[in-house]
Amino acid sequence: MKELQDLLTGEKVVNLGKSQVVKGITNNSSKVQKDYAFFAIKGNSTDGHHFIEDAITKGASTVFIQDTSIIDTLKRKYPYINIVFSENTRKSLATASNKFYNEPSKYLKVIGITGTNGKTSVSNLLAQYYENAGYKVGVIGTINYRIGDEILSSGHTTPDPVQWFETLNLMKEKGCDVVVAEVSSHAAHQFRVYSTLFHGGIFTNLTQDHLDYHGTMENYFLAKREFFNQIQLFNDKAIASVNIDDPYGKRIYNDFKEKIDFITYGFEGEFKIKDYNLSLFETLFNIEYKGKTLNFKTKLRGLFNVYNLSASISFLIKDGFDIDFLKDKTLDLKPIRGRFEVVEAKDFIVVIDYAHTPDALENILKSLNQIKQNRVITVFGAGGNRDRTKRPLMGKVAQDFSDIVILTSDNPRFEDPNQIIKDILEGITQKSKVIVEPDRKKAIEYAIKTAQKGDIVLIAGKGHENYQIIKDQVIPFDDKEVVNQILKEI
Ligand SMILES: CC(=O)N[C@H]1[C@@H](OP(=O)(O)OP(=O)(O)OC[C@H]2O[C@@H](n3ccc(=O)[nH]c3=O)[C@H](O)[C@@H]2O)O[C@H](CO)[C@@H](O)[C@@H]1O[C@H](C)C(=O)N[C@@H](C)C(=O)N[C@H](CCC(=O)O)C(=O)O
Ligand SMILES: Nc1ncnc2c1ncn2[C@@H]1O[C@H](COP(=O)(O)OP(=O)(O)OP(=O)(O)O)[C@@H](O)[C@H]1O
Ligand SMILES: N[C@H](CCC[C@H](N)C(=O)O)C(=O)O
Ligand SMILES: [Mg+2]
What we know:
The chain is of the alpha/beta class. It folds into 3 domains: 2-99, 3-Layer(aba) Sandwich (Udp-n-acetylmuramoylalanyl-d-glutamate--2,6- Diaminopimelate Ligase, Chain: A, domain 1), CATH 3.40.1390.10; 101-330, UDP-N-acetylmuramoyl-L-alanine:D-glutamate ligase (3-Layer(aba) Sandwich); 341-489, Mur ligase, C-terminal domain (Protein-Tyrosine Phosphatase, Chain A).
């Protein structure tokens, strides 16, 4: 419970109501309870200002609004309610949530990871290193929100501000020292983590995704940039690791190098990838850092994981870790669920991977081509109600780097799966390579039955997901389980 005064960061109280007690915070009118503060947000699909009356009926003591034109009417109709005007209710929701949950990031080392691909991977790698060094670590991201093996909840990759600060507070109360969190572009753009004191940040890469939301690559970049802007706004001693091979990484580095203490990684980095050797069961790579060559060995597979490890290790060096300790621990790291996960069959292998962007698909396929003994058979689809323009690009990549392509459904959501497949086909010129099977289980079955000695079957797009979203139904579906079941039957 808080007093309204304790939650303000420069907003203007335009009407003082009967009671200033605030027992909870929400931007969702359906979650309002007695004495809650309701934040009206102009959203992407609707405007929270339409739900103010609903919130008051449910017992809100306070409403935060951004629309000046309704102030007089509200004051007249609801003189007993606190009415607070904010220039930006999204920011106010974050700052008030932070205060409501006692500013948890002040007591934690919070590290935010952003980029199109690799956020989940890097955050799980960082968590393992910190845990190996004896820290208690909270993880917030796509798979779930957890402390060690204790799962707290799950939802968006980055939760909304209320859940974000509530989760940080819970992690603090449960004794965490460190929190590693994925910060999606939607989150940065919507100020979901605004006002958090980040110890540091990591930028992995930026390639096409989410243009349904951001419209252009430049806007998508600006959302990622906004995260670094927020880091330095609330911490003038923040550290960060950035992929300098990526032109957008270079821009972030240049824009904030005076404000953030950076380390760069990549083939052009200060933490420089010199060479690497991929195989199905281990990866070797050499790093040049401060004039010394460091040899690393890991069970993680694929060149993209050399990048993810470089992101993590360089960040940890900046955070004061000993390089020999990091080299040792790299040997023991556990691979991440649904990311280049290998299932061995009789004389071929199946790889399950979460690639759901053109760049991710290209990366995994390039790595598979480097280690294949025979053909690469790729099964994939694309998510419905998401960026449509990435579909033909994914089709082209699959065609260019596979011997056989089996097009199927991912999470069609409210779209027609056949139309999504048609969109992917737009990018494919070599139609003879392609088989269309919208039923994902049948598509996987076809791929496995087609596989010959030395082949690699890649099943891409859903990784750890154990469901399929068809319209508003969430149906159990786990690529790995389906693969194992089919392998047992053949
Ligand atoms: C595009 C997007 O990010 N939308 C999210 C966002 O919606 P929004 O702020 O635009 O809100 P809106 O739905 O237009 O509604 C406006 C306001 O009215 C309120 N409202 C609405 C209805 C009502 O009855 N009462 C009420 O008060 C809403 O709570 C909201 O505050 O905030 C909502 C509430 O916090 C989220 O549920 C919603 O997630 C949608 C469902 C979603 O699918 N988001 C995905 C794309 C997403 O966030 N993905 C990222 C990136 C994934 C990745 O790359 O890893 C993620 O972080 O997961
Ligand atoms: N550093 C990387 N560069 C390019 N591709 C990568 C990289 N790391 C992972 N990938 C590819 O992207 C897929 C998803 O990886 P991961 O889950 O770590 O990314 P993410 O950024 O968390 O994705 P999401 O936006 O869904 O949260 C992997 O399965 C792999 O195919
Ligand atoms: N976080 C990503 C996940 C995509 C996973 C893919 N299986 C899909 O459903 O499109 C997104 O929301 O775009
Ligand atoms: Mg993720």
